[in-house]
């Protein structure tokens, strides 16, 4: 990883049902430096669940685990397990507004209890040596003044020892809006996050919400330490091929998207041998050729065939032939 920039300089947001380990492995083929996040995992799932909710591949580094929870002891237990497994960062979700998350008393509703968030961060920091960070909103419901945001940040930083915050530049409505609507309806307020950095220059602050291009990311980086991109990175992953050169200053040969797809074949074959369905991997790759002639045929072929019994890399190779002769050699 490039040393001259912090890991938070560019990251891909944790997205439930999207940023699973297959997605992260694929994204890592496109960018070496981007910090990748897991989907949010609850403390209850890790402690009591039957599956391995901490599974990830060594090739995914740098990778952060996002935790959902509000019990300091349970969070500390999970953070210690995650550090032992090799994660590079632990992130506490203080931003998700869904009813299910609120009922578990975690996510955005925690903004109303800054001291509890501070206690949670301190409990984790006491048992791990890797960074413990917070992803939050600029406010919730009627608690949306700049003073409220500053008080929250100050308490969590001072009492919890948190020095890195990722700020989704929208408030969250805890009732009346769906999670999808909470990503779209409350207006973005980038200047408020910029002001936060001016008022807390000692903290590492990254911004999230509505970032669609690397040019926009560069604009934010004139004011802040980092940018987190969400849905655009997932739906148009080809954008990630430019990140290492554009945002991390690496001298980089142009990225061949056809080669990126084929670099997935050993991983796909290994996963298939372990019982993974092809579609569980290729669903994350559908948007790779966005804007390129043949992209629709690529998506359609994978969507129609990857779920079939016995589907293997030949399905992907056949889909590639529908776009390969139409794509520039590299981007």
From TrEMBL:
Residues 12-320 form the DUS-like FMN-binding domain. Pfam families: Dus. It comes from the Bacteria. The keyword Zinc-finger does not apply. It is an enzyme of class 1 (oxidoreductase). Transmembrane segments: none annotated. The active site is at residue 96. It catalyses: 5,6-dihydrouridine(20) in tRNA + NAD(+) = uridine(20) in tRNA + NADH + H(+); 5,6-dihydrouridine(20a) in tRNA + NAD(+) = uridine(20a) in tRNA + NADH + H(+); 5,6-dihydrouridine(20a) in tRNA + NADP(+) = uridine(20a) in tRNA + NADPH + H(+); 5,6-dihydrouridine(20) in tRNA + NADP(+) = uridine(20) in tRNA + NADPH + H(+). Its cofactor is FMN. Keywords: Flavoprotein, FMN, NADP, Nucleotide-binding, Oxidoreductase, RNA-binding, tRNA processing, tRNA-binding. FMN binds at residues 14-16, 66, 135, 168, 208-210, 230-231. GO terms for molecular function: flavin adenine dinucleotide binding; FMN binding; tRNA binding; tRNA-dihydrouridine20 synthase activity; tRNA-dihydrouridine20a synthase activity. The record marks 93, 180, 183, 296, 299 as: Interacts with tRNA. Its EC number is 1.3.1.91. Catalyzes the synthesis of 5,6-dihydrouridine (D), a modified base found in the D-loop of most tRNAs, via the reduction of the C5-C6 double bond in target uridines. Specifically modifies U20 and U20a in tRNAs. Belongs to the Dus family. DusA subfamily. This is tRNA-dihydrouridine(20/20a) synthase. It comes from Duffyella gerundensis.
